[in-house]
Design a protein that fits this description.
The chain has a two-stranded antiparallel sheet with strand order 1-2. It has a two-stranded antiparallel ribbon with strand order 3-4. By secondary structure, the protein is an alpha+beta fold. It has 2 domains: 82 residues, no CATH class; 81 residues, no CATH class. The protein starts with 5 loop residues before the first strand and ends with a helix. Helices cover 49% and strands 13% of the residues. About 9% of the residues have low confidence.
Length: 185
């Protein structure tokens, strides 16, 4: 099941969760919740906007994918001119794989943590570099730069950018590293 960021004004979470469960069940990736959904019915779905709802950009992206998957499952070929209004934003925002330079250390960090990428999240390169310093401070890898301090983990100064790592997940991970650092001292 996809996860979405919660924003001040976004799509109604209950409506999105119910539709997502139906589509995932229809596609055979989860137990079927309700009746299977058809491509025709899917095309008529609209979500209400609510306070503390799911990020509309993220939901719209998943819904475009669902539309293509439902069409393929029904053997329907979607018209090539069925471009969504924001389908080209991926070119502007960059791919989900853009982060710190691809070194074996950064690849290992991403492999261990696999932080979800959100529409707005912590700068991926900054997070990867901070965790590399954490690993060096803890002796897991050679230290490249100054040791990380408690203050840096307790109050990280990470930029919030488009297509960044999920903030709560990063904060939880840094909290675990802080506890590990405090236990060693």
């Amino acid at each position: 099941m996809p996860e979405f960021s919660v924003v001040m004004r976004g799509y109604d979470r209950r409506q999105v969760d119910e539709l997502t469960a139906r589509v995932e069940g229809t596609l055979g990736r989860a137990p079927l919740a309700g009746t299977p959904i058809t491509l025709k019915e899917f095309g008529w779905i609209e979500f209400d906007v609510a306070v503390r709802g799911y990020d509309r950009f993220e939901v719209d992206g998943v819904m475009r994918t669902y539309r293509r998957e439902l069409a393929a499952a029904e053997g329907v070929e979607l018209p090539a001119d069925l471009d969504e209004p924001d389908a080209g934003l991926g070119l502007i925002l960059g791919s989900a794989d853009e982060a710190a330079p691809d070194t074996p250390l950064f690849s290992e960090i991403r492999g261990e943590h696999s932080f979800p990428v959100r529409f707005r999240g912590y700068d991926r390169a900054q997070v990867d570099e901070l965790i590399a310093r954490v690993w060096g401070t803890l002796g897991r890898t050679p230290l490249n730069g100054p040791p990380v301090t408690r203050e840096e983990l307790n109050n990280p100064r990470l930029d919030v950018v488009l297509r960044g790592y999920d903030r709560p997940t990063v904060e939880e991970t840094l909290g675990r590293y802080l506890r590990e650092l405090l236990e060693r001292r």
